[in-house]
Amino acid sequence: MTTYANIYAVKCPSYGDDDWERDFGKWKAKVNLLCQQHFGLSTDDLPDAAWADYYHDDMTPVDAIDTAVIDAWDDVPEMQEIWYG
User: Fold this and answer.
1) Which segments within the chain are labelled E, that is strand?
2) pTM
3) Percent of all residues in the chain with a pLDDT value above 90, rounded to a whole number
Protein backbone atom coordinates (compact mmCIF):
# COMPACT_ATOMS: atom_id res chain seq x y z
CA MET A 1 0.00 0.00 0.00
CA THR A 2 1.31 3.41 -0.95
CA THR A 3 1.14 5.99 1.77
CA TYR A 4 1.88 9.68 1.85
CA ALA A 5 5.00 8.95 3.90
CA ASN A 6 6.30 6.57 1.22
CA ILE A 7 5.70 9.08 -1.55
CA TYR A 8 7.33 11.85 0.47
CA ALA A 9 10.38 9.69 1.19
CA VAL A 10 10.84 9.06 -2.54
CA LYS A 11 10.24 12.66 -3.66
CA CYS A 12 12.15 14.43 -0.85
CA PRO A 13 15.32 12.58 0.07
CA SER A 14 17.38 13.68 3.01
CA TYR A 15 19.70 16.64 2.60
CA GLY A 16 22.52 14.34 3.72
CA ASP A 17 21.81 11.84 0.94
CA ASP A 18 24.79 11.61 -1.44
CA ASP A 19 22.55 10.94 -4.45
CA TRP A 20 20.52 14.05 -3.71
CA GLU A 21 23.66 16.16 -3.43
CA ARG A 22 25.11 14.73 -6.64
CA ASP A 23 21.86 15.23 -8.58
CA PHE A 24 21.38 18.70 -7.11
CA GLY A 25 24.95 19.53 -8.07
CA LYS A 26 24.32 18.57 -11.71
CA TRP A 27 21.07 20.52 -11.75
CA LYS A 28 22.68 23.57 -10.13
CA ALA A 29 25.55 23.42 -12.64
CA LYS A 30 22.98 23.78 -15.43
CA VAL A 31 21.37 26.70 -13.58
CA ASN A 32 24.79 28.34 -13.21
CA LEU A 33 25.58 27.86 -16.90
CA LEU A 34 22.30 29.51 -17.91
CA CYS A 35 22.82 32.37 -15.46
CA GLN A 36 26.33 32.95 -16.76
CA GLN A 37 25.07 32.95 -20.35
CA HIS A 38 22.21 35.37 -19.67
CA PHE A 39 23.38 37.55 -16.79
CA GLY A 40 27.13 37.17 -17.00
CA LEU A 41 27.21 35.97 -13.38
CA SER A 42 26.87 32.65 -11.55
CA THR A 43 24.23 32.11 -8.89
CA ASP A 44 26.91 32.75 -6.25
CA ASP A 45 27.27 36.30 -7.55
CA LEU A 46 23.53 37.01 -7.99
CA PRO A 47 21.03 37.87 -5.26
CA ASP A 48 19.90 34.88 -3.21
CA ALA A 49 17.18 32.58 -4.53
CA ALA A 50 15.67 29.38 -3.13
CA TRP A 51 17.54 27.00 -5.44
CA ALA A 52 17.14 23.90 -3.24
CA ASP A 53 13.39 24.55 -3.01
CA TYR A 54 13.15 24.93 -6.77
CA TYR A 55 15.05 21.66 -7.19
CA HIS A 56 12.75 19.87 -4.73
CA ASP A 57 9.75 21.25 -6.62
CA ASP A 58 11.08 19.41 -9.69
CA MET A 59 11.59 22.60 -11.67
CA THR A 60 13.79 22.56 -14.72
CA PRO A 61 16.78 24.91 -14.55
CA VAL A 62 14.98 27.33 -16.90
CA ASP A 63 11.81 27.28 -14.77
CA ALA A 64 13.89 27.81 -11.64
CA ILE A 65 15.59 30.88 -13.07
CA ASP A 66 12.25 32.17 -14.33
CA THR A 67 10.84 31.78 -10.81
CA ALA A 68 13.87 33.51 -9.30
CA VAL A 69 13.46 36.42 -11.72
CA ILE A 70 9.79 36.78 -10.79
CA ASP A 71 9.97 36.06 -7.03
CA ALA A 72 13.47 36.46 -5.62
CA TRP A 73 14.72 39.19 -7.92
CA ASP A 74 11.49 41.14 -8.41
CA ASP A 75 13.14 44.23 -6.95
CA VAL A 76 15.76 44.22 -9.71
CA PRO A 77 13.84 45.09 -12.91
CA GLU A 78 16.98 44.80 -15.01
CA MET A 79 16.97 41.05 -14.35
CA GLN A 80 13.56 40.73 -16.00
CA GLU A 81 14.70 42.80 -18.98
CA ILE A 82 17.76 40.60 -19.46
CA TRP A 83 15.94 37.29 -18.93
CA TYR A 84 12.84 38.05 -21.00
CA GLY A 85 14.68 40.10 -23.59
Assistant:
1) none
2) 0.74
3) 69
